[in-house]
Amino acid sequence: MLMVDTLLSITNESVKTKFLIKSDCVFVSKNVFSEAGLIENAAQTCSAIVGKSYFKEDDVQGESNKLVGFISGVKNFEINKLPLVNEIIYTNATLVSRFDADGYSICSLKCFIENDNTVLATCEMNLFIKEVFS
After folding, report:
1. FRET partner for 106 with CA separation of 20 to 30 A, picked from 3, 48, 49, 123?
2. What is the C-alpha separation between 120 and 125, in angstroms, rounded?
3. Which phi and psi angles does 83 have, rounded to 5°?
């Protein structure tokens, strides 16, 4: 399930996304978006920075390649508030480090999630992203 609706901005070092929390989301219980949902939203946002380097620049639909990604670590995950259904969250990530090898990348990122100028959560995340060859 996608946890990002809109890619608001992206560079080789940072990304900002937007996500509207809907009642049918798997990470919603009793009209509250869960901690696991925040982690998944952060991971999908973070992966965009490194993932974009595997695609052709004009490929806005992501059809020129296939990738698989895994969270390899989460540190210092702090939650200040859980968002509610119908709230929009904005997730910002900044690349801390990146190692590229043949067909895969390992990266570390800092991330914060906010809505209405309130920081909901912050974390540091490590990701492993790999090309999938058919």
Report:
1. 3
2. 16
3. -75, 160
HSE value, Cβ hemisphere, 13 Å, CA-based, for 54 = 24
Range of the domain at 81: 6-131
Q: In one letter, which amino acid is 10?
A: I
What distance in Å separates the CA atoms of residue 60 and residue 39, rounded to the nearest whole number?
24
Work out the average pLDDT over 24-28.
97
- Residue 84 within any structural domain of the chain: yes
Total residue count of the chain as it appears in this document = 134
- The percent of residues above 90 in pLDDT, for the chain, comes to 71
Gap between the Cα atoms of 52 and 84, Å rounded: 30
Cβ(89)–Cβ(114) below 8 Å:
yes
Q: Is the pLDDT of residue 57 over 70?
A: no
CATH no. for residue 37? 3.10.129.10
Assigned domain for 99 exists:
yes
The pair of structure tokens assigned to 2 is 């996608």
Rounded to two decimals, the pTM is: 0.88
Q: How many domains does the chain have?
A: 1
